[in-house]
Each structure stands twice: as structure tokens, then as C-alpha cells.
Design brief:
Helices cover 81% and strands 1% of the residues. With 423 residues, it is mainly α. It folds into two domains: 195 residues, no CATH class; 172 residues, no CATH class. A hairpin with a 2-residue loop joins strand 1 and strand 2. Helix 2 runs parallel beside helix 6 and helix 6 runs antiparallel to helix 7. It is globular, with a radius of gyration of 21 Å. It starts with a helix and ends with a strand.
């Protein structure tokens, strides 16, 4: 499959780069897949449900930790400017993580909600490591050291899966999953940090001008991504609230498995597509050619997994993960459309950053959050079956993704409502 995908992308540098990133991602996800049937037999759904809540809160904070400056690292023509953005993003991440640490300690001492669990004290650590990962991935991709990204992902997957199994066997449950996440993320950051060798440290005064130049990222992209992260995690909070940790555990496994095609292929394509599209925009004022090639590749490669999940999920989940997890397969049938749309559109939506359309992206994410909250809240009041609530969520998200697809295609042509995009 990988070889066919590489042939379809072509034998040029773009195809080779995608294949390099994708190979490492595939290896990493294969490791996770091989360990998953063992984990689901020693860790009950309830513990996975608690861990899903932890990761959801972490992902929401992660959208803000670097001020979204990580998305600007690949844009400057000068490496020196990119280095300054990188260092500015890391300083913002350190400050944000410190504030979160203070908030978590206060919540823990006050005995508020899920923060009564000791594992939540690890949240600030996962946050700073996650921010560092985001920055390093963008920097490594800018430097086109794609093999370093692949090595980091494979090592991270091996560490995380091995620790999950060992700590799960010891009966640590959700706490073990959190500890494994922290250690594996730290190792990934350590590997990619090799790309920073020789970089000089800039003063705060030197960083200010370039951070001001890209101020639209924290002003518009940050709230947009925060809303997006919150909206995407709303099912976790609502399903946990209406149906409890067990159903949430089933949902978390479904989401994890359906995410695999996106993480294996879509993420790899996205990282290289953004670099190539940014370069084409700077040179040609459009990126229509690479957009069409990427879109066709994603559709062709995504249709197979989509049909498998749609038709065979309950039987596959019961066979691979144990009969206890059959309901996760039933949820996978419902959610297959959503992940097919996300697989195709997520890489292409980076054109909102490249074309400078953060305001429009913010409006769409605002509608996404409001509509998702309404669907989940009122659906939770109406539906007694979790699958029906999940279906309503899927249909709402798919309609919004269709808007992103149409608009990103417009941006790729260098046009916005009939006018040239400002580059």
C-alpha cells in the first residue's frame, strides 16, 4: 500500500518526503496496533474512559500553549526569523505551562472534579512536552530533516506501548497510561532536539519584532484552534456526563482506531504539503497543482479504510480487542464518515494559514463549537442510545468540513471571492 501511494504521489521530492514521513508514522502506528489487543485485555474500558478525559483536557490546553506561533515557523524566508519564532513560541509555552501547573495544584487541593486524581498533576508536564513537540516538528520539517521526525515517532510509539503494557500489567490503569505518555513524549522531544544544535539564543528584545509580524496567529489562529480543540473534545465530556466512563472508554478506543489512517497518512501528507504549498505560494502566488495532487491521493487512499470501518467494524473490534469491545465497533460504523472527511480535509485546511484567512477560519471554528455544543447537549437530553448522539455529532461536523473543502480549493487557486489572495 505504501509503495502504491508513493507511486501515485510521484517520484519527485514531494513524493519522497511524504513517503519518508509516512513510513515512520506507519511504523509507529503499527506498533500501537500490535500492542492494543493486549492492552484492551488487561485495562478495563472505565480506565480508558478516565484517560480520555485527561487527554481531552490536555489537547484543549495544547491548542494555546505556544500561542499558535508554531504554525508560523515555516513561513519566513530567512532561517534566522524562523529561529526567533521558535524561541518565542517556547518561551510562551513555558509561561503557559507554569500557569496551568498553578491552576492544577489549586484544583487538586480544592478537590475539584477529576483533578482529585493524582494523575492529573502530570498535566502541566504533558503540556510543556506537547508544546515542545509541536515546535520541533515544524522546525524539523522546515529544515527538511524528515527522517528525524520518523525516528522520533517510532521511538515514541515503542516507549509508550511498552510502558502501557508493563504498567497496565501492574494494575496502574489510567495512572500508568498518563506516565507512559509523559515519558514517551520526552524521548520524542529529545530526539528531535538534535535539529537545534548550533542555534544561537536570542534576547527578548530581538524576538519582539518578528513575533509582532506574525501577531495574527495568537490573535486569530489561537482562539480559532482553541475553539476547534474544545469542539472536537466535547463528545468526551458529554458522553462521560450522560453515559459514564464505560461508554466513554468505548468511544475513546473507537476514536483511537479510526484516527489511525489519518495519523498514518493524512498527517504525513499534511506536514510535507504545508511546506510545499508555502513555497509555491511564495513563488507562484498559488498552489493549485499540489493541491489537486494531494486531494486525489487522499481520496484514493482513504476510501478503502472508510469502507472497511463502515461495513465490518463490530466483528473486527470484537475479534481484535475482545468481545467486551464490540460496542466500540458499532460506534466506528457511525463515525466512519467523519474520519473519512477529516482524513481528506485536515491537510488541505492548512491553506487558511498560508492564504492569511485566519479570520474566516475563526468564524468557522466558532460555528463549529456552538453547533457541536448544541447538538451534544440537546441530543443528550433526547437520545437514550449513545450511538444516536454520536451520529448527530458526525453529521454536524461533516457539513462544516464540506465548507472547508470548498474554501481551501478556492485559496489554492490564489483567489478569494474572485480577488487575489494577499500574500
Amino acid at each position: 500500500m505504501l509503495r502504491n501511494f508513493r507511486n501515485h504521489l510521484g517520484k519527485g521530492r514531494f513524493g519522497r518526503n511524504v513517503f519518508t514521513v509516512m513510513s515512520g508514522t506507519v511504523a509507529a502506528q503499527m506498533i500501537s496496533i500490535l500492542f492494543a489487543p493486549l492492552l484492551t485485555r488487561i485495562i478495563p474500558p472505565e480506565e480508558f474512559g478516565k484517560f480520555a478525559l485527561f487527554t481531552s483536557i490536555n489537547l484543549i490546553f495544547l491548542a494555546t500553549v505556544c500561542g499558535q506561533y508554531e504554525n508560523a515557523i515555516q513561513l519566513p524566508q530567512k532561517n534566522e526569523d524562523a529561529e526567533k519564532i521558535l524561541q518565542g513560541a517556547l518561551r510562551i509555552a513555558l509561561l503557559a505551562s507554569s500557569l496551568v501547573a498553578l491552576a492544577v495544584v489549586i484544583a487538586f487541593m480544592a478537590g475539584w472534579g477529576p483533578f482529585t486524581q493524582n494523575a492529573f498533576l502530570l498535566l502541566p508536564i504533558t503540556l510543556i512536552l506537547g508544546g515542545l513537540q509541536q515546535v520541533l516538528i515544524q522546525w524539523v520539517n522546515r529544515q527538511k530533516i524528515f527522517r528525524l521526525t520518523s525516528a522520533a515517532r517510532v521511538t515514541q510509539a515503542l516507549t509508550n506501548s511498552g510502558l502501557n503494557l508493563f504498567l497496565g500489567w501492574l494494575g496502574w490503569g489510567m495512572k500508568g497510561l498518563c506516565v507512559s505518555l509523559v515519558i514517551s513524549n520526552a524521548i520524542s522531544c529529545l530526539i528531535m532536539s538534535q535539529s537545534l544544535k548550533g542555534m544561537r539564543i536570542y534576547s527578548r528584545k530581538e524576538l519582539k519584532p518578528i513575533l509582532k509580524t506574525y501577531l495574527h496567529f495568537p490573535l486569530y489562529t489561537l482562539p480559532s484552534e482553541l475553539i476547534n480543540a474544545g469542539a472536537s473534545q466535547l463528545p468526551v465530556f458529554f458522553l462521560g456526563h450522560f453515559f459514564g466512563d464505560r461508554i466513554l472508554g468505548f468511544y475513546s478506543l473507537t476514536q483511537r482506531i479510526l484516527n489511525l489512517p489519518s495519523m498514518v497518512l493524512s498527517t504525513a501528507v499534511s506536514e510535507v504539503f504545508r511546506q510545499r504549498a508555502s513555497a509555491d505560494y511564495a513563488r507562484l502566488k498559488n498552489c493549485s497543482e499540489i493541491y489537486k495532487k494531494t486531494f486525489k491521493s487522499l481520496v484514493l487512499i482513504g476510501i478503502g479504510p472508510f469502507l472497511i470501518f463502515l461495513l465490518l467494524s463490530p466483528e473486527l473490534f470484537a475479534f481484535v480487542f475482545g468481545s467486551t469491545w464490540r460496542y466500540s465497533g458499532e460506534l466506528a460504523q457511525v463515525m466512519a464518515l467523519l474520519f473519512f472527511c477529516r482524513f481528506i480535509i485536515s491537510p488541505l485546511s492548512s491553506l487558511y494559514y498560508i492564504a492569511g484567512k485566519q479570520k474566516e477560519d475563526f468564524i468557522l471554528h466558532g460555528w463549529m463549537a456552538v453547533s457541536t455544543a448544541a447538538v451534544m447537549y440537546f441530543g443528550g437530553q433526547i437520545f437514550s442510545e449513545p450511538k444516536h448522539l454520536v451520529l448527530a455529532y458526525v453529521l454536524n461536523y461533516a457539513s462544516i468540513y464540506s465548507i472547508y473543502l470548498v474554501r481551501s480549493r478556492t485559496f489554492s487557486k490564489g483567489m478569494v471571492l474572485g480577488s487575489k489572495v494577499a500574500i
